[in-house]
Amino acid sequence: MPSPAIPSVLFVCVHNAGRSQMAAAFLSHLGGDRVEVRSAGSAPAHTVNPAVIAAMSEVGIDISAETPKALTPEAVQTSDVVITMGCGDACPYFPGKRYLDWTLADPAGHTLESIRPIRDTIEQHIHTLLTDLHITPSP
Fold this sequence. Notes:
- The longest helix has 21 residues, at 112-132.
- The chain has helices spanning 19-31, 50-58, 73-77, 112-132, and strands at 8-13, 36-41, 81-84, 98-101.
- It has a four-stranded parallel sheet with strand order 2-1-3-4, with helices on one face.
- Helix 1 crosses helix 4 (112-132).
- It has one domain (8-132): Response regulator (Rossmann fold).
- The chain is built from four helices and four strands; from the N terminus they run βαβααββα.
- With 139 residues, it is α/β, with parallel strands linked by helices.
């Protein structure tokens, strides 16, 4: 009997330098090889926000090697779930995909202290997503 396909999740925000990077890192960390994870931005920055890197480091997740990526229609088309975080009309729509929109503050220009609650909210959303995908989080 063939093994079931693993779900593919795409996180999208404007710059792919904060919210979507944190979400992708949490899902990769907690979902392991049981989920395919991508992130992209409608207008990607040149680097990931250093304060976001520091916030994730505090919870034991290193995203210092990540780079913002451009959103492509192919990335959306090949994903089962597309989660937007403030990219507005720049996110392409394909019928048959599951779309979620997480309303989260943009960490751009914020201090580490003000990014922590955003990070923690994203982690809560990821736990809910894992439940929806029938994936038990890794410890």
